[in-house]
Amino acid sequence: TQLLEQSPQFLSIQEGENLTVYCNSSSVFSSLQWYRQEPGEGPVLLVTVVTGGEVKKLKRLTFQFGDARKDSSLHITAAQPGDTGLYLCAGVRVLTGGGNKLTFGTGTQLKVEL
Amino acid sequence: GAGVSQSPRYKVAKRGQDVALRCDPISGHVSLFWYQQALGQGPEFLTYFQNEAQLDKSGLPSDRFFAERPEGSVSTLKIQRTQQEDSAVYLCASSLVGRSGNTIYFGEGSWLTVV
Questions:
Q1: A41, A102, A110: best mutation site toward chain B, by most B Cβ within 10 Å?
Q2: Nearest to B29 by CA among B97, B105, B108, B104
Q3: At B72, phi and psi to the nearest 5?
Q4: pLDDT over 70 at B1, yes or no
Q5: Fewer CB in a 10 Å sphere around the end CB: N or C, chain B?
């Protein structure tokens, strides 16, 4: 059962366009992470946001955490073909013993064409 | 290599067959996780180990699924009497210590197809 809904589910755009991916949760997590996954590989962490209202930038990627810490967005400026992949948000909960349990969103499949 | 290593990368099993999937975490990583990922979906949590102790197995879908990490390093996920709905990518992940803020590193996954 996915507690985090992402939209859109699929996105196909041309190189140079801007895009925004949304992640909405029915629960509050201790933090929220964004991952990117390429075919045949595991997810790779892009960023962690912790504080409500927080904004983080990673080159052309801008991540925002909602004030209520239940929603987040990922904005990509001037998309490039190398940005193609499955983008996943994940809510983080601390487990017994201290490990982090990730609850992943439904995923957004992005394709950037030349 | 320095990353999380999983084997086999691809496994085709006949329905009813038992399978075992292996995970070698990054050396020194205390926490180890197993996730199941259906095609085009986000991974879903299966189970979590801290060293050799299985602290959370709430995500295992049935008693046909069993995971172990007897010496606190290598882990094996075993699926008995496989069924078609078990077809998925099984991802293993590890992190340095069991503390919030530590990055979780994922392996490339084991692709299981049950025919």
A1: A102
A2: B97
A3: 75, 10
A4: no
A5: N
Residues A41-83 pLDDT 10s? 999 999 999 999 999 999 999 999 999 999 999 999 999 999 9
Per-residue tokens: B35:
């996730």
State both tokens at A4.
Answer: 């985090």
Other C-beta atoms closer than 10 Å to the C-beta of B8 total 13
At A71, the amino acid letter reads D
Q: How many interchain CB pairs under 8 A, A with B?
A: 81
A99/B103 touch (CB, cutoff 8 Å), yes or no: no
Q: Report the C-alpha gap between A13 and A7 in whole angstroms.
A: 15
Q: Are A107 and A86 in contact (CB under 8 A)?
A: yes
How many C-beta atoms surround the C-beta of residue B99 within 10 A?
A: 14
